[in-house]
Amino acid sequence: PLEGQNTTGYRLVHGENDGLPGLVLDRYDDTLVLKLYTTAWIPHLNQFCDALAQVSPSTHLILRLSRSLQKQTDLPHGLNDGMTLTRPTPPSLILFRENGLTFESDPVHGQKTGFFLDQRDNRARVEKLSKNKSVLNVFAYTGGFSVYAARGGAKEIVSVDISALALGAAVRNMAHNKLTVP
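-> structure tokens emitted (182 positions)
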């Protein structure tokens, strides 16, 4: 966890920014989600996973593939999007903490790796700006910004997303934190 921040969900590797182009690695409590954007990593996948287990142990490791990789039908070793690379199989929804708030993630079916962890600082900023404000969260996904706005004291929050499943998660994320908005 991030020291002193009550956070168990965070980005470990951010592709090119960390010198590993085409690879993103996120942690959700005891689950790691590895997202590949290029087949260049596939021949090195076993070595990468072995090294990863040494530096960042986890109970579960899930493989996610970019849309372009999902379209390829000739991926070796039967690799497919959402497969578990470790045993046991993780639960379908994983709870994690971010700055003291609880969120759920669906790392197998959710967008990207299941939650936009790279927006943590922006969500915290929204919390500081929300006191007594009306907040519109467009493209809300699972309501991360809405939860922060509620904890920040927003008087009204409207979350909009095309996905009913994502909005259902947004409602549950409010409930996980016992937050309500008038």
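The chain has a mean pLDDT of 92.
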